[in-house]
Design a protein that fits this description.
globular, 5-stranded antiparallel β-sheet, Methylamine Dehydrogenase, Chain H, 30 strands, mainly beta
Length: 309
């Protein structure tokens, strides 16, 4: 669960270190996901899955295939990492590994990449967003998969509602698709975006859903699908979102971060830019946020000048 936020500030890069712990600046590709689970920070790049330690990164799982995303959950009372990716135009793959790096289970899915994965807060399930547009729910005990819904082009992001009762995805078709996971449930389509959707985040209480698109616009809906407001950020792709009501923090492709206050619907773009494009953000605790591109930066709660948008 992503936790509390305070105003963002200075970048502090992790130090270099000796193998097997890897420098955050080593050329292992863009870091596309960071997750804090039970106080430990995990992440992934196209080269594999790692854990962040005091003196750098330690690789848990390396592969010749691409890794695009990870999510964590408990399986048989043990923490496991669910990684997704595959080989473009060949197959998608789900790999379940334990925190020691051993492969517990894996499955090939479809004929193209899997871009995103999320784990259910209430069941032993994962959901994946596929390049062929399908959004699947996978039973982590049996690895059986079923299609929940499909986009008309690639599905790019996926999230379970905090109560586990529904699933939302965003796609290159610019749509948000929300499906109930009950036997009597249906599907809703939200078409307010005018550009491909790249990221999603629910508020912790499930009352609000934020989504970010390639045109830099962030839209906030209520749990019933009603559009509450839009926030227009930099004219850059929104790469990731953290939603800790009443604040939303957004990472943009040009390295900027923004905070949006959902109470007055105003936002602040940080004046300082990261040295690289950003792909992922997460909260370590109420006083620290991590942001990642080719490196990982720790942002403290020390105030910095901001420009209001």
């Amino acid at each position: 669960m992503r936790t509390g936020l305070l105003p963002l500030a200075a970048l502090c890069f992790a130090p270099a270190c000796q193998s097997p712990v890897t420098k955050t600046s080593d050329a292992h590709g863009w870091i596309t996901r960071l997750v804090v689970y039970q106080g430990v920070t995990y992440g992934c790049s196209q080269a594999g899955v790692f854990v962040r330690e005091l003196d750098g990164l330690r690789w848990l799982y390396r592969t010749d295939e691409r890794i695009h995303d990870i999510a964590l959950t408990n399986r048989h009372a043990h923490v496991v990492i669910v990684a997704c990716g595959g080989v473009p135009a060949r197959h998608g793959r789900i790999v379940v590994i334990d925190t020691g790096g051993s492969v517990v289970a894996q499955r090939t899915v479809g004929r193209d990449l899997i871009y995103a994965v999320a784990t259910s807060p209430t069941r032993s399930q994962a959901a994946v967003a596929c390049a062929d547009g399908r959004v699947l729910v996978i039973d982590l005990e049996t690895l059986e998969a079923r299609t929940v819904h499909a986009h008309t082009s690639a599905a790019r992001c996926v999230a379970f509602a905090p109560d586990g009762a529904s699933l939302v995805s965003g796609g290159l078709d610019g749509l948000l698709r929300i499906s109930s996971l009950s036997t009597t449930g249906g599907e809703r389509v939200l078409d307010d975006h005018t550009a491909p959707v790249e990221c999603l985040a629910y508020s912790q209480d499930g009352r609000y859903l934020a989504s970010g698109a390639r045109d830099g616009k962030i839209r906030v809906h209520d749990s019933g699908g009603r559009l509450l407001f839009n926030w227009y950020g930099p004219d850059q792709e929104v790469r990731d979102l953290v939603f800790d009501a009443p604040r939303i923090v957004a990472a943009f492709a040009d390295g900027r971060l923004a905070e949006i206050d959902t109470r007055d619907r105003t936002g602040h773009v940080l004046d300082e830019r990261g040295p690289n494009p950003l792909f992922a953000i997460c909260c370590v605790d109420p006083t620290e946020l991590l942001a990642a591109g080719s490196t990982i930066a720790a942002l403290s709660t020390e105030d910095r000048p901001k420009s209001r948008r």
